[in-house]
From TrEMBL:
The keyword Cell wall biogenesis/degradation does not apply. Belongs to the GerABKC lipoprotein family. This is Ger(X)C family spore germination protein. Residues 21-192 form the Spore germination protein N-terminal domain. Keywords: Germination, Lipoprotein, Membrane, Palmitate, Signal. The keyword rRNA-binding does not apply. PANTHER family: SPORE GERMINATION PROTEIN B3. Residues 205-362 form the Spore germination GerAC-like C-terminal domain. It comes from Clostridium malenominatum. It is a lipid-anchor. InterPro entries: GerAC_N (IPR057336), Spore_GerAC-like (IPR008844), Spore_GerAC-like_C (IPR046953), Spore_GerAC_C_sf (IPR038501).
Length: 369
């Protein structure tokens, strides 16, 4: 019995080990975002937003301080190491939430930086990638009341993307997968500082379109909803439907769920891309005083369907004319027709969109006007 007890105690010493105090964690700076810019010679300039934890003796709790560290060199690996020379603590990237390229760096191309991002053992591939449009110093000096750390705020903002069907998101892992197909044009989040808010706020302003690791175009916010429907990234959001009988009056439908299925028909020369979109909605608001009869519901659903079809076709035709495959058509085509050996298939693709909008809820309520 005594031997068994001693064995359990010895085993526990090995299994239940941990930090004895706060000395170790207090010697580390945790990166929350990595911002990459380039100088006049296109050499990388990096800004690392870090969290420095420290122990509060008065409250007995863990607190932290935001520290921005700058580094520059001929390569991003060297720039990160040079940034470490400005810190007496080790910089740890395991908690990094966002990788942000300035518009200048993205326009130059991220090809010189992706190897370090993929190879570094601390940088996680599930972090989000974004392009920032504007003055990088304004971004770094911004004081966001909702969240002090840009990386954490951006991660929360993107996770809250379901509130809008017009926002765009992409992780590093998805970007790496998409860049392997030459014809594909990945679309990342496009950020800017909001000019119509009363305080500093970062806002998602559509998407940044990459081709061969370079920023080549921007997807406007008003085109983003059609894009998201085509690539099956709409979960929630709103649909605004004009009331035909009354000028400048709208019904707003809240999207509860959306699913897009893709079919392809290839005749050896031309590809017909068929998108089947089913959207489940409820009434969010009406600007008109009318009874929601079955006939009225059908009209509103038809109006919503027409709007989705128009939005999808408009964004498709625009990027087809630019030969930018932001819809992953080439990837899906290669999977379905592996022996076709057809490059840049978007040039020979026509789009057919079938939409079914279901409106849930009472059909007898009056508008409150």
């Amino acid at each position: 019995m005594l031997k068994r007890l001693i064995s359990i105690i010895i085993l526990s010493c090995f299994l239940f080990t941990g930090c004895f105090n706060y000395n170790d964690i207090n010697r580390v700076l945790f990166a929350t975002s990595l911002i990459i810019d380039v100088d006049e010679d296109n050499n990388p300039v990096i800004y690392i937003e870090t969290f420095k934890p420290y122990r509060s003796a008065m409250s007995g709790s863990e607190k932290g301080e935001r520290i921005i560290i700058k580094g520059q060199a001929k390569t991003i690996f060297e720039a990160v190491r040079n940034a470490g020379l400005s810190s007496s603590y080790k910089i740890n990237f395991t908690q990094n939430k966002a990788l942000i390229f300035t518009e200048k760096a993205a326009g130059y191309g991220v090809h010189d930086f992706v190897d370090f991002i993929a190879r570094d053992q601390e940088l996680i591939i599930r972090q989000y990638i974004a392009v920032y449009e504007g003055d990088v110093e304004r971004l770094l000096k911004s004081k966001i009341k909702a969240e002090e750390y840009i990386g954490i705020f951006l991660a929360d903002l993107i996770l809250n993307i379901g509130t809008s069907s017009r926002s765009v998101k992409l992780s590093i892992n998805d970007y790496f997968n998409m860049r392997l197909i030459p014809s594909n044009a990945p679309v990342t989040t496009l950020l800017k500082m909001s000019d119509d808010q009363l305080e500093d706020l970062i806002t998602i302003d559509g998407g940044a379109v990459f081709k061969d690791d370079k920023l080549v175009d921007k997807l406007p916010r008003e085109r983003s909803q059609g894009f998201n429907f085509l690539v099956n990234k709409v979960k929630t959001g709103t649909l605004e439907v004009p009331i035909i009988e009354e000028e400048n009056k709208y019904v707003t439908l809240e999207i509860r769920n959306s699913k897009t299925k893709t079919k392809m028909e290839y005749d050896g020369e031309k590809l017909k891309l068929i998108k089947i979109i089913k959207v489940r909605t409820t009434f969010g608001e009406t600007q008109s005083n009318f009874v929601f009869t079955d006939e009225t519901l059908q009209k509103i659903a038809k109006g919503a369907e027409d709007n989705i079809i128009r939005a999808c076709k408009d964004v498709f035709e625009e990027y087809k004319s630019k030969e930018l495959d932001i819809f992953n058509i080439q990837r899906d085509f290669n999977i379905k027709y592996p022996k076709a050996n057809k490059e840049n298939i978007i040039r020979d693709t026509s789009l057919e969109v079938k939409v079914e909008v279901e409106i849930e809820g009472s059909s007898t309520k009056l508008g409150f006007h």
